[in-house]
Each structure stands twice: as structure tokens, then as C-alpha cells.
Amino acid sequence: MSETETRPAYYALGPGGLREVWTLLHPPFTAWHLSYVVIGACLAPRVSTERLAATVIAFFLAVGIAAHALDEMHGRPLRTSIPSPVLLVASALGLGGAVVLGGLGVTQVGWTLVPFIVLGVFLVLAYNLEWLGGVVHTDAGFAAAWGSFPVLTSYVAQASELSVAAVLASAVAFGLTCAQRSLSNRARLIRRRATSATGQLTLHSGSQPIDKQWLLQPIEQALRALSWSAMALAATLLVFRLA
To answer: Could you tell me which CATH number the domain at 12-185 has?
Structure first.
């Protein structure tokens, strides 16, 4: 079995130090979900770069750091050796920092932002700690929390209200995140739980051997393409709005 096949994720680096921090941050997926923040902001009538920067940082702290640290504490899916107390402190500081930035945003945006701050904290904790019997810890819950919610929150942070366009964009983000979840569920199953995969696909022209790498390749190519496409779309909209 190759080293590539034994890594817990295609973007995971080796054990130790900053390599494990990189792995913990899930860089392609974190950037993908931060792209939804940019997309939501760019749909607003006016785009404040200061508010957008604060919103992106807040979501990075809440999702990129806090949510992923809590997730790693629960079963060590990424197989890091980062001590649990360090993960707990990182999650607390990340979520606390996001709330502080949200509070500062309320002074600029108004009280319409408060429900989104409260809901954001709830989603991070309820999803990763599997509150309420895990009712939020589902594929739909993941798509709503990390797909739709960033779009809506970022729009409100700019416009102080919601719009039909923002709701429609949140539905698009929900669908794309459902696709991400479906693909990543299968990739995680193969990488983290399967010890081997053997078989043969019979074709009209011959046969194709089946192994773990053959199963993983199209799934992870699709995940790479989708993550880069989301980032490219966010960058395109930002350049268009600020030009």
C-alpha cells in the first residue's frame, strides 16, 4: 500500500509540527467554504472590504480552527498527535475570536447580525459535539452550516438584511456542499477505514484492475476541481465588484 493511500486525506502532510497544523486546517475545504463568504458579500448592493475581511477572518476562526479542532478531538480522524488540551484551547480561542469580531460587526451592521452570531456558535458546537442526538451532524446539517450559512451571514454583514438573491445563492451553496459531502464521505471511507480494495472491472476491450488508488482518483480529482472552482468564482466576483 502506497504512502498516498495511507494518508487520512489527499491534502494531509506527514506527522509532526506544522505539518499536522496544515492537515488540521483542511486547507482546500476551508478555502472552499470561505469562498461562500466572499460570494455572499459580493451579492450585496455595496461591498465594504473592511466588513468582508472581518467576516472572512471570523469564519476562518470558527470553521477553519474551532470546528476542525473539535472534530479532531472526536476520534482523531486526521490521526494527528496534537494534544487534546491544545485542540480545546484552539477551538475556544477560535470560536471566541469569531464572536468578538461578530460583536464588533454589530456596531457597524446593527442588531440584524446578532441572530447569525448566535446561530454560528450553535452550529459549530452542535455539529462537532453532536448535540441533540446528532440531529445537526448529518450531510444536510453540514451543507446548511458550512454552505448556506456563510453566504447568508456574509450578505447580512454587508447589507444588514437578506434578499432573494442571497437566499438563492445559499441554495446553490447548499447543493455544492452536498456534492462535496457525498464525495468526501466516500474518500474518507476508502482512506481511513478500508485496508484494501481488490477486484476487476470487465470491459468489452479487456479488464481493469480495481484498487484503492483507482477508486480514489476520480473522487479526489472532483474535490480538487470543485474547491478550485469555488475559489475562482469568489475571486471573479470580488474583482468584478471592486473594479
So the answer is: 1.10.357
Name the burial class of residue 136, with classes exposed (0-12), middle (13-18) and buried (19+) by CB atoms within 10 angstroms of its CB.
buried
Contact 237, 42 (CB under 8 A): yes
What residues contact 56, with CB distance under 8 A and at least 6 apart?
34, 37, 38
Using H for helix, E for strand and C for coil, what is the string for 77-114?
CCCCCCCHHHHHHHHHHHHHHHHHHHHHHHHHHCHHHH
CB-based contact 243:196 (threshold 8 Å): no
Residue 55 has pLDDT above 90, yes or no: yes
* Helices and strands counted in the chain (H then E): 11, 2
**pLDDT number for residue 5:** 58
Task: Tell me the three cell numbers of residue 231.
Answer: 475559489
Determine contact, residues 53/169, Cβ cutoff 8 Å. Answer: no
Give every CB contact of residue 239 below 8 A, 6+ residues apart in sequence: none
Cα separation, 68 vs 145, in Å, equals 13
Question: Rounded to an integer, what is the distance from CA 7 to the centroid of its chain?
Answer: 19
Task: Give the confidence band of 231 by pLDDT, cuts at 50, 70, 90.
Answer: very high
Is the separation of the CB atoms in 8 and 78 below 8 Å? yes
Question: Please, what sign has the CA dihedral across residues 56, 61, 64, 70?
Answer: negative
What are the residue boundaries of the structural domains of the chain, listed by start?
Answer: 12-185
pLDDT in tens, 124-177: 999 999 999 999 999 999 999 999 999 999 999 999 999 999 999 999 999 999
